[in-house]
Amino acid sequence: MTDHHHGAREPRELAGLFNARANAGDVEGLVALYEPEAVLAAGDVVATGHTEIRRFYTDLLARKSEFPAAEELPAIVNGDLALTFARLPNGSLSVEAARRQTDGTWRWAIDQLKIKPKA
């Protein structure tokens, strides 16, 4: 990972890194936020591992170029595990399980994008 793709030192930093990298069109930077065998779920799409997550973000960034900043909600941390949450401007939630890596940074192991609020 280059300095440009520095890791999150706290679980709550992941959402901000996601937003910055998505708005920059940085697919590799987005993939670097995930563990190698992470699972990402977005609607009907479930991507497992860096190859599938890379494909998901390559497709997403080809269709969408602007990602509004999400409200970062406090993470719940228990040792080397954390739940992270972000509320998007449309009210949808993003909920993730993050794990502390051996180098002290945090990466997502499970990412559930866009849980829509009840109508």
TrEMBL record:
<keyword id="KW-0413">Isomerase</keyword>
<dbReference type="InterPro" id="IPR037401">
    <property type="entry name" value="SnoaL-like"/>
</dbReference>
<dbReference type="InterPro" id="IPR032710">
    <property type="entry name" value="NTF2-like_dom_sf"/>
</dbReference>
<dbReference type="GO" id="GO:0016853">
    <property type="term" value="F:isomerase activity"/>
</dbReference>
<protein>
    <submittedName>
        <fullName>Ketosteroid isomerase-like protein</fullName>
    </submittedName>
</protein>
<dbReference type="Pfam" id="PF12680">
    <property type="entry name" value="SnoaL_2"/>
</dbReference>
<feature type="domain" description="SnoaL-like">
    <location>
        <begin position="18"/>
        <end position="110"/>
    </location>
</feature>
